[in-house]
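Bug #77: duplicate submission created two jobs. Keeping one. Sequence:
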Amino acid sequence: MEVWTAEIAGKPVGVFQAALEADAEEYVRAESFTSELASLESRGTPVWNGKDKITFRKANAGERSQWEKSYAAAVEEGEIDAGEEDWLQWLIPVDEDEDDEEDEDDDKNK
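Kept job's structure:
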């Protein structure tokens, strides 16, 4: 498996795993990925405006290392199962959704 970097208008935004270049292209073109990008904000600014080109390339060593560390932590914390391939590591700060913040607050108050 290769690790790939998704870019928007030339800016790296996330790192993911895919076996082949065709799989990486399918990943960044998938409605599930583009709709997530369209709904996210980074520091109060939309991550994707729905118009800028989304591209991908093989991840560099630093991006690959960041993805591997994130993946290992997700497995250790039980967020995903070992061997699961669908893991995306953001390379940008992603603002938390208010619903997510409320869920975290509810968990803390239990």
